[in-house]
Amino acid sequence: MSGWPSRSILASHLPPGNSSMPHDAREFPGPFILDACSVICLEAAGILRRVLAILPGDCLIASSVVAEAQWVYSWPAEDGSRHQVAIDLQAHVSDGLLKVVTPQTEAEAERFVQLAGPVMDDGEAMSTAIALHRGATLVTDERIATNYCRSEGIACLSSLDMVQAWALHDQASDDEIVRALTGIAQRARYRPPRSHALFEWWTRYVDG
Predict the structure, then answer these.
(1) Which of 41, 97, 112, 174 could pair with 92 in a Cys bridge, judged by C-beta atoms 3.0 to 4.6 Å apart?
(2) Structure confidence by residue, pLDDT tens digits, 55-113
């Protein structure tokens, strides 16, 4: 599992005050719960199924996220037009790569209600509440959710962490990495902020 994110990148996402650096991803808090933005980005990159297969732990998705992560854009046609392409999450569920979850305890339900609406959308809120109470790692690109995770000591990774992990794990070629990241930019319409730990890595492949 040496192909997972570097120790410096993992360290940037550990809860504050946690000085125990995992030796590899198998020691990173699991299970993993994916927010809608990360599902959409990984699907747009064309690697969602592969990431689910190589993550070293169960992969969870909140029921409200299933309702939100419905589609990505197609690659643009010659005339620049594009259309919506459905995300088939059920195939991953049927194959045992993804498990749909809902709040199971009163504490999870109360935290979900607390976060939903004024703070986060339903998918973010449910994913964050479940991550907090089950000791899961949240995979999200949403700033509010990421900041909340850090303040509450919840382990948090981003879509780009997952892409880099896939690239290193599978020894992806430069062309494969460019296509994956370009897919995120064009089919999910996402670009990381300059403050992102992997912004320079992204820029090297997408804008270089």
Answers:
(1) 97
(2) 888 999 999 999 999 999 999 999 989 999 999 999 999 999 999 999 999 999 999 99
CA nearest to 30, candidates 54, 7, 48: 54
User: What is the 8-class DSSP label of residue 4?
Assistant: S
Count the Cβ atoms, other than its own, within 10 Å of residue 122: 18
Note every long-range contact of 142-149, with CB atoms under 8 Å and residues 24 or more positions apart, other chains counting: 142/35, 142/37, 143/193, 144/119, 144/120, 145/35, 145/120, 148/115, 148/119, 148/120, 149/15
User: Quick one: which of 37, 123, 32, 33 has its CA closest to 72?
Assistant: 37
For 166-207, what is each residue's pLDDT tens digit? Answer: 998 899 999 999 999 999 999 999 999 999 989 999 999 998
DSSP summary character for residue 168: H
